Amino acid sequence: MNVILIFIQKAIAQGISILFGAVGEIITEKSGNLNLGIPGLMYMGGIAGLMGAFLYEKGVENPSPFKGLIISFICAFICAVLGAFLYSVLTVTLRANQNVVGLALTIFGVGFGNFFGGSISKIAGGVGQISVAVTASAYQTKIPLLSKIPIIGQTLFSYGFLTYLGIILAILTTFFLNKTQIGLNLRSVGEDPAAADAAGIDVAKYKYLSTMLGGGIAGLGGLYFVMEYLGGTWTNNGFGDRGWLAIALVIFAVWNSYNAIRGSILFGALYILYLYMEGLSRGSQELFKMLPYVVTIIVLIITSMRNKRESQPPKSLGQAYFREER
Prior knowledge:
- This protein has a single domain, classed as ABC transporter involved in vitamin B12 uptake, BtuC.
- 71% of the residues lie in helices and 0% in strands.
């Protein structure tokens, strides 16, 4: 029983960073922008949050966990938003190829994180000594009283606030996209930007804002991984393929952020399943790590065969909009 509870906890913990990235990408893709730079934005958010907390803790004698949390949160969000803004300028205004720009952003974001991670490590006194434990303690604070409930408390209420923020954002995103006028306008931009433009909707503004908001949310996935999951430490290339799993989760969830909640837990479980399988060789472990992608491919095939409109990506996804061709 304890092993099962631990597995569920670890699956949820693994899935939350993927959930943030997926929710951010869903908002972005609903505008018609395909941002393959999500992995890079997660790196940028993670290292920016860590840098903000590190500089704060080193600059005051008695750092406050709450102030460190606020500073790191803002730094992570803004840094990722700026990265998404760069993507928007290149793809919306300059009409560069979205796939190329997204991949370049991922390469840049990973390099950005590793470079500054190494720089902070040198300041801290050597590799492996980066730590912002004071700020991380605020991120890892569990829900009082509820977390003490046997079994239920351990399974549902023993996480930091970013875990619950990720789930809340996913639910609110579904409501926003389906029940609000702004959300419906955003979806119309992603489906048919020419028709939206003719109806008086500012296509460029919606693409910019949705991409930047989505990028900022994805950056919080990196912050979660560094602060809540790793406890305020940094390891170069430590994110693994979680950013790509976030993009795969968008497809698995059929562009529905509510579905992404369950999907993220499933992905988290599949991602760590090999750790609970005894006697696996190194090669077999790598095969188990492929399971989230295999499941995504199966879902993609099934949804394509069903051909239901609500299960399909936005019609203009990945396509640049040229107003003069309207």
